[in-house]
Amino acid sequence: MKKYGMSIVMLGLAAIPLTGAMMSEGEKSFAPNVEPATGAIWVPEDYTEWPTLGTWTHAHTDEKLGEMGPGVHEYHVVYTQPETIAYYQKHRRFPDGAVLVKELLDAKTMAMTTGPAVGHATTIKGWFVLVRDTKGRFKESSLWGDGWAWSLFNADDPRHTVSKNYKTDCIPCHTPARELAPRNAVDADKWIYSFGYPVLQKR
C-alpha cells in the first residue's frame, strides 16, 4: 500500500514540470511583441539589432520646398527579424509572426563636401509596427485584420499605440501598395511596399 501511494506521488511530481511546460507553450506568443491574451502589440525593444529591410526618404515639398530649398525632412527606416528575410527569400511571402518596424525619424539637410544638399536623420518621431497574422487571430480587435496587426506609436510611448482602427488609420496609406505588388503575391502581402526592399528579392 505504501509502495502504491509512493508511486502516485512520484507520478504526480513527474507531471508538474510537464504541465508547466505545456502551459508555458500555450502562453507563448507567436511574435515577440504580441500579448497572447489580448493581441496588444508594442515596439520590440531590440528591433535595432535586426536587419534593415530598407529606408524611405521624404523630400521637402510645397511650403517647405520654398522656405528651405531641396532636402529631406523625414526618414523611414524599416527593420524585420533575420528569419523573416530568410523565409521570404525562399517562399516569396511573409511568414506568420513576421514583424515590420518602421522607425520614423526627423531629418536635417545641410551642405557638405559630398554635395550642397545632404540629408541625415536626427531624432525619432515614432514607429509604425506591423505583425503578420496568417491565422486570423483577434477578430474582435479593431487593430487586427487583412492579414496583419497594425499600430502607430509616438516617440514618448513605445508600449501603447495611438491607433484606434486600422481600416481608417492605416489602410489608406497602404492601399497604393496593392497596385505595385507582384501579381502572384499572397493577398495580405500586397499591403506591403515590398518593391522598396531589395534584400527580399535576393536568394
Primary descriptors:
203 residues; alpha+beta; 2 domains; 6 strands
Structure notes:
This protein is α+β, with helices and mostly antiparallel strands and 203 residues long. It folds into two domains: 1-29; 31-201, 3-Layer(bba) Sandwich (Chalcone isomerase). It has helices spanning 2-27, 62-68, 82-91, 166-169, 171-180, and strands spanning 52-59, 72-80, 99-112, 115-132, 144-145, 148-154. The protein has a six-stranded antiparallel beta sheet.
Summarize the structure.
By secondary structure, this protein is of the alpha+beta class. Helices cover 28% and strands 29% of the residues. The chain folds into 2 domains: 29 residues; 171 residues, Chalcone isomerase.
Please write out the topology:
Elements: H1 2-27, E1 52-59, H2 62-68, E2 72-80, H3 82-91, E3 99-112, E4 115-132, E5 144-145, E6 148-154, H4 166-169, H5 171-180
Antiparallel strand pairs: 1-2, 2-3, 3-4, 4-6, 5-6
CATH superfamily of the largest domain: Cytochrome P460
What is the H/E order? HEHEHEEEEHH
Shape summary = globular
Total domain count: 2
| DSSP summary, beta strand count | 6
Alpha carbon gap, first and last residue: 66 Å
Pfam families: Cytochrome_P460
Signal peptide: 1-21
Domain Cytochrome P460: 44-179
Keywords: Signal
